[in-house]
Amino acid sequence: MHLHPPNSPLRVLLWFILSTLSFPSFATEPNQALNFDQKVNSFISPIAQQLSSIVFYKISLFGYSVPIIVLWLSMAAVFFTFYLNFVNLRGLGTAFRLIRGDYTNPKATGEISHFQAVATAISGTVGIGNIGGVAVAITIGGPGATFWLIMAGFLSMSTKLVECTLGVKYRKVNPDGSISGGPMYYLEHYLKSRNYPRLGKCLGGFYALALVIGCLGIGNMFQSNQAYAQLLVVTGESQSFFADKGWLFGVIMAVLVALVILGGISSIAKVTAKLVPIMAILYVVSACVILTMSAEHLPNAVSLIFSHAFSLESATGGAIGAIIVGFQRAVFSNEAGIGSSSIAHSAVQTDEPASEGLVSLFEPLIDTVFICTLSALVVISTAYPTGLIHGELVGIELTSAVFAHHITWAPYPLAIAALLFAFSTTIAWSYYGLKGWTYLFGEKRHSKLLFKLMFCSFVALGSMIHLDAVLQFSDALVFLIAVPNVLGLYLFAPLVKREVEDYLNRIKLGEIVNYRLMGDSLDNQPSHKRLWYRITNRAQYRSEQT
Asked: What residue stretch is flagged as signal peptide (predicted)?
């Protein structure tokens, strides 16, 4: 019996899930018995390959194959950086003060703080790709790819600002006080304002549906699968206690995820606010130890990055190859332009949309510019002098070998960091998927509980099976939604520019209250804080004196 795709969003989603779990796939031999993995892959594979070939369609550019979606996102990053007059530089100081709580109105609408929103969004982007993906970029594009990765990360900060500003501006406050926001809401709003309400609803529904399905793959099964693989690496591979107990690891991870996500965004934000600094410190300290031990090669590593970034030697990938690989890695790393981060930022406690756009500048800065650069320096300073770069190791295996070259037990903290990255990414994407789900099916409590239980079951499933086709399908869907999202960002660009410039001007004029300094009486503050308050809040201070 064949399952035919239905029309309604709910039936489409249920059809996909049920057919994934139960469809009797075709075998190469009529009587050949297929296991669960093979059945699912056999059914999904043709669809996944077709969709992936469209989404990641490549064109030849200076002799290199480049996915059009990478060009689409990269051009948007360049455009918004220039259009907003390099706000990714001008706004960093204000962004830092916002995260610190300087301008957080305790009476403003929202569920989480600026810092919690950043932590949640970073946890969704900082993952195993930051450790292994950078090594892949260096292997393919040479050391020069690192320079262009940094540049791409810097430029994508502007894209992130635009989508997160819109996420707050067009968010929906539900009757219970919870917040729903993201591309599906601002895309619908724009088309509705242009008298295309049905088209807006359809486009928002498409984004939400793709987000739900995508989150079950790239933000769920892939993470638990990779986390399980890392656990096996440090516990003895085939000799590990967990070697034939993927189900046990999956159940444990699913339970841990459930304990966090059942509490909603407040619970997720509290966990990520603690988890992100811990895993970042763990990885950064480990990487710095390795850099210290390879300090003699560090100057040469930096020299290689800059010389190869502009080199014309085809043997090392050349400048063009380095640019392409660097930008591609950055796009896949920080997800700027996909719109997922705006969902987390829409829940922040603020009445100023531009404030959250400015705060979001820190995500690509930390994710791509800082952590990816650190990973690159670790790999280049050791892999090139030792010849590891010319071996067969790639990705996280190469990074792990670099760590092990200096300290035999160094792969253990690396594996722990990878496990934490996978866990934090999973809980962040659970929230993104939930908001896509509620956009489609409403905010009813039982509906949200159903999604969370389904999400946790897929976490357990991911560590037990290898669904390459499903992951390929969900990966393609996640990047497909960047097309309508970036188009919407272009349309909203003038509005965002006005919002941001107006907000920055009001801060400069002292019209935005510095609530952190006003928490106590100004007279009780140290002299330097009183002076700083008078400088940064001139208008308010003058009115208080009169």
From this structure: 1-27
Classified as helix, coil or strand, 139 is: helix
CB atoms within 10 A of CB 29: 7
How many domains does the structure of the chain reveal?
2
Structure tokens at 406: 């200096």
Q: Clarify whether residues 487 and 514 are in a common domain.
A: no
Which residues share a beta bridge with 172?
A: 180
Distance CA 69, CA 57 (A): 8
Query: Which tokens belong to 274?
Result: 């603690």
Residue-wise pLDDT tens digits, 12-66:
555 544 444 444 443 444 445 556 666 766 777 787 788 888 888 888 877 767 8
Judged by DSSP in three states, 60 sits in strand
- 452-488 tens-digit pLDDT: 999 999 888 887 776 677 667 777 888 888 899 999 9
Quick one: 261 and 402 in the same domain?
yes
Residues 398 and 513 in one domain: no
Note whether 304 and 88 are within 8 A (CB). no
Residue 69 contacts residue 55 (beta carbons within 8 Å): yes
Which residues have a Cβ under 8 Å from the Cβ of 504 and sit 6 or more positions away?
90, 91, 94, 354
Compute the distance between CA of residue 510 and CA of residue 513 in angstroms, rounded to an integer: 7
CB 145 within 8 A of CB 325: yes
List Cβ neighbours of 518 (8 Å cut-off, separation of 6 or more). Answer: 533
On whether both 217 and 280 belong to a single domain, the answer is yes
Q: What is the pTM of this model?
A: 0.82
Report CA dihedral (198, 199, 205, 209) to the nearest 10 degrees. 140
In contact, 114 and 101? CB cutoff 8 Å: yes
Mark whether 450 and 516 lie in a shared domain.
no
Domain span including residue 434: 59-492
Q: Is there a domain that residue 50 lies in? A: no
Residue 79 main-chain phi, psi, to 5 deg: -60, -50
Residue with tokens 């159940």: 251
3-class state of residue 77 by DSSP: helix
Bridge partners of 58, per DSSP, are: 67
Question: Is 498 part of any domain?
Answer: no
What is the Cα–Cα distance from 40 to 48, expressed in whole angstroms? 11
